[in-house]
Amino acid sequence: MLRAKDDREHPYFIILDEMNLSHVERYFSDFLSAMESGEPVPVHAEGDPLPTSSGDEVPSQIKIPPNVFVIGTVNVDETTYMFSPKVLDRANVIEFRVENEDLESYFDNRNGSGTGSQSIPAAPEGVAEEFLKLSLSARGIEGHEPLEDPPDREEIRNTLLCFFEILKKSGFEFAYRTADEVLRYARVSYALTKNEEEDGDAENEWDVEAVLDHQILQKLLPKLHGSRRRIEPTLVALAKLCEGKDLTEAQKAFENNSSAVVDYTANIEESDEDQRFPKSLRKLKEMIQTVRRDQFVSFIQ
Asked: Which one, of 223, 301, 239, lies nearest residue 275 by Cα?
């Protein structure tokens, strides 16, 4: 953080590997609070800066520089702890899956030393600086032109309102921070698409439904957990929204002894690519299958 404070032209990343081996809310609480309040993070209780062996001086507190980014990896087993809503509200949860083709590629690319022979190429010159510039604009940091809203803001608004109506029925409603971060994600995605089009190398057109699909999966679903009695109607209702059904049709899952829940078939072998939000729908179907089998489910399994 001290290095980032003195080098505002480049991004700095804090990587927390297996960050849930301990309760994140305990060891990271000061940092989480400072992310929102803008107040300094307390570092030590001494009044004067403390010298280090490298010649640096560590102050008793430090504000999080705007060019610092935090990434954490998570493993889920009996030795780890699940995240609280306070942590999830401040993050995008990205689930990495190993598919058949991934494992086949791994075996095909193993070399004699027993490791994969593929390497990650270095990013082109200037990518880090452009990443930081885009991030500062997205957050409205003073001195950087704010990003414009995408043309589909009304569709984003209406979609979030529909999901809010379903989630609040079982106590998983989101607040202003989540809505604001979904809009920020959309602005960044739209800006990147426009830049690619202007450079003449756009691979994909702006797709508001793909953007919403990512944010439903990364921001709205990760807090879902509970017993079958409590959460199955919510999962089915959300799945219906992801299929493209309207809010009225989705809300039928909450009727007493709802046939909408009983008759819902969560077949993850079926292709969901023609549905409105296919990635989120696949995850919801997996959760429905799990809660029917085990009587309990959480997003991170």
From this structure: 239
